[in-house]
Amino acid sequence: MINLTHLTKRFGATVALDDVTFSVAPGTIVGFLGPNGAGKSTCLRSLVGLVRPDSGEATVNGMAYATLADPAHVVGALLSADSFHPGRTGRETLRLASITLGLPASRVDDALDEVGLTAAEGRRRVGTYSLGMRQRLGLAHALLGDPAALVLDEPANGLDPQGQRWLAGLLRSRAERGCAVLLSSHDLHEVSRLADRVVMVARGRVLADEPITAASSAELEEQYFTLTSGADRAA
Known about the structure:
By secondary structure, this protein is of the alpha/beta class. The chain has a domain at about 1-60 and about 180-235: Rossmann fold (3-Layer(aba) Sandwich), CATH 3.40.50. Helices cover about 35% and strands about 25% of the residues. It has 9 helices and 9 strands. The strands form 2 sheets. A 6-stranded mixed sheet has the order 5-6-7-3-8-9, with helices on both faces. Strands 2-1-4 form a 3-stranded antiparallel sheet. Helix 3 (about 90-100) crosses helix 4 (about 105-115), helix 4 packs across helix 6 (about 130-145) and helix 8 crosses helix 9 (about 215-230). It is globular, with a radius of gyration of 17 Å. The chain starts with a strand and ends in a 7-residue tail after the last helix. The relative contact order is 0.20. The mean pLDDT is about 90.
């Protein structure tokens, strides 16, 4: 469903991605781990057409994002919770998105309900939202088209423990319905508990790509720090 194949990208003298190859199958959650500057965000942005790779391919359902006839039904993305207009209400934000994507207005209420934003919260302006509420709004935006794949960058950021538990349930439920979930995170414990596989990157290269269903949080942490030691740099 989600495939990155020999993906390479340079920004000037900096190699952001160096022959990155991995995939996310339908019905699975892949934890995407790496220190700051590892290339995670560049990978995710390549998948949704915001970055053009120098070589290689980033595809969802076998097609580049720009060529998808109905992208909202294929892939939903949350890359930043700070990209919404602060003067609009949460509901207005989703309604405008639904019009742009050609989706029925009913999907707005469905998405708000799925992410746990009440009708009253939907009527509030986004500028008054907490970070956790903005994350929920971003997830609602990603879910509007009921997509077959989700590409998420730190979706638990700003969520309290109850919110993190809710998010884990949401993502597992989506995976059980056949959704392919690519989850970038710095929370090693959450990834060890939730994901089916882990892909670790540093300095733009894939260091590990393996199942983690049997790994404990401590084992995953040890592997992560062993592989990425000294590899973090300014994002």
